[in-house]
């Protein structure tokens, strides 16, 4: 079995994650751990951008998937109503 992708967080994403409810933050972290096994299955590219989104209930994680480096870079996350206004 292949090694999972490494998950890295921007400072913005870390700050948002720390301010979220613990229950929501845990769901996001668990989903990112699952996505690290096979990011192409979980992440969907945003139209006209290089960013990808990961759906976690009503929340969205915006990031980049680097296949050569086997890394996922989390840029931001927020409720689906607000997340796209940041980008």
Order of neighbouring strands in the sheet with most strands: 1-5-4-3-2
- Classify the secondary structure makeup into a structural class: alpha+beta
CATH superfamily: RelE-like
- Strand tally is 5
* H-E order: EHHHEEEE
Distance between the termini: 35 Å
Q: Count the helices. How many?
A: 3
| Strand residues, percent | 25-35%
Can you tell me the overall shape? globular
Please bin the fraction of helical residues. Answer: 25-40%
Mean pLDDT: 93
- Main beta sheet: strand number and arrangement? 5 strands, mixed
CATH class: Alpha Beta
In the CATH hierarchy, the architecture is 2-Layer Sandwich
Question: How many separate structural domains?
Answer: 1
Itemize the secondary structure elements and their pairings.
Layout lengths: L5 E4 L1 H9 L2 H14 L3 H4 L1 E2 L6 E5 L2 E8 L4 E9 L8
Parallel strand pairs: 1-5
Antiparallel strand pairs: 2-3, 3-4, 4-5
Task: Give a quick summary of the entry.
The protein has about 90 residues and is α+β, with helices and mostly antiparallel strands.
Sum up the structure in keywords.
87 residues, alpha+beta, YaeB-like fold, 5 strands, globular
Description:
It is built from three helices and five strands; from the N terminus they run βαααββββ. The protein is an alpha+beta fold. The protein has a single domain (6-86), classed as 2-Layer Sandwich (YaeB-like fold). The longest helix has 14 residues, at 22-35. The model has no long low-confidence stretch (mean pLDDT 93).
